[in-house]
Amino acid sequence: MAKLLSNLKKLIFSRLVITIVLVAAQAYFLFATFYWLSYYMPIISVILLLLSGVLLIYVVNRDINPAFKLTWVIPLCLFPLLGGLLYLYVEANFITIAIKKTINRRIEEGKPYLEQDKEIRKRLNERPCSMSAISRYVENAGGYPTYGNTKVTYFPLGEDKFADLLPELEKAEHFILMEYFIIYEGTIWDSILEILKRKAAEGVEVKLMYDGTCAINGLPRKYEEKLKAAGIDVRVFLPAVPFFSTHQNHRDHRKILVIDGKMAYNGGVNLADEYANRSHPYGHWKDTAVKVEGDAVRSYTMMFLQLWYSIGPESSPNYIPGDYLKYLPEKTAKEQAVPPLQKEGWGIPEGGYVMPYGDGPNSRHSLAENVYLDMMNRANRYIHVMTPYFITDNETIRAFKYAAERGTEVKLIVPHIPDKKVIYDVTRTYYPVLLRAGVKVYEYTPGFIHAKVVVSDDNKAVVGSINFDFRSLYHHFECATYMYRNPVIEEIEADFQKTLESCQEVTMEYYKSIPWYHRLTGKVLNFFAPLL
Fold first, then answer.
1. Which end of the chain is more exposed for a tag (fewer CB within 10 A), N or C?
2. How far is Cα of residue 492 from the mean position of the Cα atoms in its chain?
3. CB 426 within 8 A of CB 522
4. Global pTM value
């Protein structure tokens, strides 16, 4: 019964229902206008045209992706009232506007704690490698440094991450910082929560932040009060407010867990049973994560704190958090030492470079997308991608096509069993254009692939929370770990090849065998892709 009520609540306050209500409102308005106010129709028509014209001028001149402009221009022209109200409802969310400004203030405050190591920057400038340019870009656009002195461990499955995580949580001595998109009650979360409660009782500071959609989708009402009673400091990121916000917009999709400032976990794995294959709603769940140890943990600590201080009492414009250093231990002499160079690394330190980075709707830069595009455009021998959702813009499609057409091996793995069937239909609309360009597309037949992995030329890889869709690249707060010439890249590529063994290759014949109504649904909904 509780699940039924939860699903009903989610449906009622979804964008689809709101859109239907607005369509019905416009239909009623038009009927009433024609029936009762026919004398004033010329005046009303002029007002609606003026409203449509003003919004059209504003939308066309906004500094946004052209796909978003196209999605809004047509409904504004065809249905001025509905299009205008829907645009204002989706875009003019004053709560998210305010939090974007707060987050940007926190990022400015945090810059002194995320300064780029001068020796690393000197090496990257004096002996350029294919990491040099993207490192400068991410530092300038996002404020995230590039690090040496960092070890990375790769987990090819969610259950591998949890097997490593639980013992590490037991060792926590000072603090645990956790930020997740989804937390569902079950075996996985219960085992973690038991440790968190015990650690909190021992005096370890435990901070937990989860996205507001959990209150709709998976957790009991006022669940945060139960956690606070156990000594856990909890904050809910942008709780969904019925009729005032749609639960799809500007969510905290990050997965970050920091222990004592010594290690950080990142990837696609949320805290729920399906992510460790304890339950099987969509067959076998393929997901990935990384553990970062060393200097690069600093960036993940700051990412967490910047968002944490943006939604609590510290979010006041006049408040300046003063305890960043509490979670950023001073470097020891060993850590401060310049990392040794690889024997044949052109100035690259042993262990390569590691660059954690984040992105979100608060930024005017499409940082997450540009990192992916840089990898696509610089790939020489191959670029391999795993993503659960592939609903993207023309720039990304062109990058995939250009890489394949210049002779680079481009392989893309997506799910065969989707968690969202409508999104799956839209993803498949891209098959023909990719296949014609020479991109090899595969579907993971055992179940659902939730991994967000890009690996290239045996020397670059990204593992994080960032999908190849509009939500991740433009709407959500995201993060990922960029690795260059780190030994773990070999393991990531090996996992990609192993995953291919459980995939079926997509051909044009396969695409044509998809039922026509699914192909039609995908093509129609592709028009609304930026809003899905």
1. N
2. 20
3. yes
4. 0.85
Q: Identify the CATH homologous superfamily for domain 358-531.
A: Endonuclease Chain A (3.30.870.10)
Intra-chain end-to-end CA distance of the chain, in Å: 28
CATH no., domain 130-328: 3.30.870.10
Instruction: Report the candidate in 295, 256, 331, 266 with the shortest Cα–Cα distance to residue 150.
Output: 295
Residue with tokens 């156990």: 230
DSSP string covering 11-23? HHTSHHHHHHHHH
- Look up residue 523 and give its two tokens: 């093509």
Q: Tens digit of pLDDT for each residue in 187-203?
A: 999 999 999 999 999 99
Residues of the chain with CATH 3.30.870.10: 130-328, 358-531
Q: Which residue type is seen at 231? A: G
Phi, psi of 109 (to 5 degrees): -65, -30
Which two tokens mark 482?
């960029």
In terms of Cβ atoms closer than 10 Å to its own Cβ (0-12, 13-18, 19+), residue 46 is exposed
Query: Phi/psi at 264 (nearest 5 deg)?
Result: -140, 140
Residue 186 CB-density burial (10 A; 0-12 exposed, 13-18 middle, 19+ buried): middle
Q: Are 481 and 257 in contact (CB under 8 A)?
A: no
Residues contacting residue 219 through CB under 8 Å, at least 6 positions apart: 183, 184, 185, 210
- 399-439: pLDDT as tens digits: 999 999 999 999 999 999 988 888 888 889 999 999 999 99
Q: State the virtual CA torsion across 514, 520, 523, 529 in degrees, nearest 10.
A: -90
Using an 8 Å Cβ cutoff, are 262 and 228 in contact?
A: no
Give the DSSP letter string of 430-443.
THHHHHHHT-EEEE
Token representation of residue 69: 């402009």
* Six-digit token string for 341: 């160079």
Amino acid at 269: V
Choose the weakest-confidence range: 7-21, 30-44, 176-190, 450-464.
Answer: 7-21
Task: Please say whether the dihedral angle defined by the alpha carbons of residues 172, 177, 179 and 185, taken in this order, is positive or negative.
Answer: positive
Q: At what angle do helices 187-201 and 158-170 cross, to 10 degrees?
A: 20
Phi, psi of 259 (to 5 degrees): -120, 115
Q: What's the angle, vertex CA 110, arms to CA 180 and CA 193, rounded to 5?
A: 25
Tokens of 437: 């360009």
What does R_g of the chain's alpha carbons equal in angstroms?
24
Measure the CA–CA gap between 24 and 511, rounded to whole angstroms. 36
DSSP letter for each residue of 346-384: TTPBTT-EEEEEEE-TT-SS-HHHHHHHHHHHH-SSEEE
Torsion of CA 442, 444, 450, 453, to 10 degrees: -40
